[in-house]
Amino acid sequence: MNFVKVESRLSSNNLVDRRLAGSFTAEGMRDLIRLTLKCMSFPAKRRPKMEMVVAELERIQEKEMAMTTVMGEGTDTITLGSVLFT
After folding, report:
1. What is the rounded distance in angstroms from the CA atom of residue 59 to the CA atom of residue 15?
2. Is residue 82 scored above 70 in pLDDT?
3. Taking 90 as the threshold, does the pLDDT of residue 39 lie above it?
4. CA distances from residue 67 to 13, 26, 55, 75 in whole angstroms, order as listed
5. CA-to-CA dists, residue 54 to 15, 22, 50, 70, angstroms
6. What is the CA radius of gyration of the chain?
């Protein structure tokens, strides 16, 4: 399955559990899916080194955690980051 097919499923909510909607950015999920697909590449020598995987996961997490979302109607409760990595 290539990234275009996966991305179309993401936009139609067929890939991500509906209970997680709004708890991460679409960009963060796309980055995570791209990384996952790279890790599944054939032949195996096309797969990224673990150091690159760790660095990319950290980059995605930092970007997600930098996001803030105001939660609930009429409330000033702020949740930092997303649940993409929880």
Report:
1. 22
2. no
3. yes
4. 21, 12, 19, 18
5. 23, 25, 6, 29
6. 15
Q: Are 31 and 60 in contact (CB under 8 A)?
A: yes
Per-residue pLDDT of 46-57, as tens digits, reads 999 999 999 999
pLDDT tens digits, one per residue of 62-80: 888 877 554 555 555 555 5
Nearest residue to 53 (alpha-carbon basis) of 28, 32, 67: 32
**What distance in Å separates the CA atoms of residue 74 and residue 82, rounded to the nearest whole number?**
21
- 29 in helix, strand or coil? helix
Instruction: Look up residue 18 and give its two tokens.
Output: 């509906």
What sections of the chain are H helices per DSSP?
3-11, 26-39, 50-65
Q: Determine the distance from the C-alpha atom of residue 80 to the mean position of all C-alpha atoms in its chain, rounded to a whole number.
A: 16
pLDDT at 59 over 90: yes
